[in-house]
């Protein structure tokens, strides 16, 4: 086998490892730590293939008749490595927290989700001040949303926005102003729980959201991103 074809095969193997790292975890073929390991090795293989591909393109004797395969290995290897590299960079720069709320001092409480999360899931009954301070420093934009709607109308819009996010709604209590839902992440299929609280605020309503991962110490920014997207969608519906 030509060296360029072998290099391209390694890049393809890296792409396959990256794909199964998420799909295998999502469909329960292995626990998420195994998926993380596969993702890590996919990045290593991708970088190795890209490095060899670059050398092959730079050395005339190697490049002759093999440029296309080396170029393919370089591009594919870098593409595969870019995804886990981005997540690693996020993990290093963001705090290792998995509980994000628009109300750090008095976060919305889960009710229905408590039975669904399981005994091994991250706790949601308490939220210490260290987490609140870490969130404040990392995500200062995560704040309550004030809408010019009375609570019943705001509640209806909040339900519509939650459905628009593709979440599985697990509880709707209009009297308590509480909506609970479960969000599933795209890659690994992680289950994260969300609770929305609607309270009166003058002539309008205040919307608070809390999103908590069931597993893992760090959410790599996923819960904050989810809250931002939801509040942006709700703000448009509440105009």
Written overview of the protein:
With 239 residues, this protein is α+β, with helices and mostly antiparallel strands. The protein has helices at 3-26, 32-58, 60-63, 67-93, 113-117, 129-138, 151-164, 222-237, and strands at 99-101, 145-147, 168-173, 178-184, 191-201, 204-213. It contains 8 helices and 6 strands, in the order H-H-H-H-E-H-H-E-H-E-E-E-E-H. Strands 1, 2, 3, 4, 5 and 6 form a 6-stranded antiparallel sheet that branches. Helix 1 (3-26) runs antiparallel to helix 2 (32-58). It is elongated and about 75 Å long.
Q: Using the CA coordinates, give the radius of gyration.
A: 23 Å
Number of strands: 6
Percent in strands: 15-25%
Number of domains: 2
Number of H/I helices: 8
Distance between the termini: 63 Å
| Overall morphology | elongated
Classify the helix fraction into a percent range.
40-55%
Encode the helix/strand succession as letters.
HHHHEHHEHEEEEH
Task: Just give the CATH class of the largest domain.
Answer: Alpha Beta
Structural class: alpha+beta
Query: CATH topology of the largest domain, what is it called?
Result: Alpha-D-Glucose-1,6-Bisphosphate, Chain A, domain 4
Mean of all residue-level pLDDT scores: 93
Unreliable runs: none
* Biggest beta-sheet profile: 6 strands, antiparallel
CATH architecture of the largest domain: 2-Layer Sandwich
Transmembrane segments: 38-58, 70-88
Keywords: Membrane, Transmembrane, Transmembrane helix
Protein name: DUF1499 domain-containing protein
InterPro entries: DUF1499
